[in-house]
Design a protein that fits this description.
Elements: H1 7-20, H2 32-71, H3 76-86, H4 92-101, H5 103-114
Helix pairs in contact: 1-2, 2-4, 3-5, 4-5
Length: about 120
């Protein structure tokens, strides 16, 4: 039995990769095997970068909260544990935003935790 080939699907797959490789330098943009390797590597980096971005933002929020809490005479860990003990459920993103934009409101939160 003769071997069948699905050229339509193969061409579509190659076009998809070459479209993603648009803008790459040299053979990376127009030679199928080279473009495929670099696109796959780039997609791996993009996936990893999305995870790292979440980590970086969380650490930035923690630094901001810590700085604002220390200005009000409390460490970050005592502030967060105090909020949990009081039943205040605010995430770190919102706390960091409050710390930067409304220091007076943040000071009220610190006083809530202290008392």
């Amino acid at each position: 039995m003769p071997r069948s080939q699905n050229n339509v699907a193969a061409l579509a797959r190659k076009k998809k990769y070459l479209k993603i490789a648009k803008g790459y330098w040299g053979r990376r943009k127009n030679v199928w095997t080279v473009a495929k390797n670099h696109v796959e590597k780039g997609l791996v980096h993009a996936y990893t970068g999305r995870k790292l971005k979440k980590r970086d933002y969380r650490s930035l929020w923690i630094v901001r909260i810590n700085a604002a809490a220390r200005e009000n005479g409390l460490s970050y860990s005592r502030f967060i544990s105090g909020l949990k003990a009081k039943g205040v459920d605010i995430n770190r993103k919102v706390l960091a935003k409050i710390a930067v934009e409304n220091p007076s409101v943040f000071a009220e939160l610190v006083n809530l935790v202290k008392n």
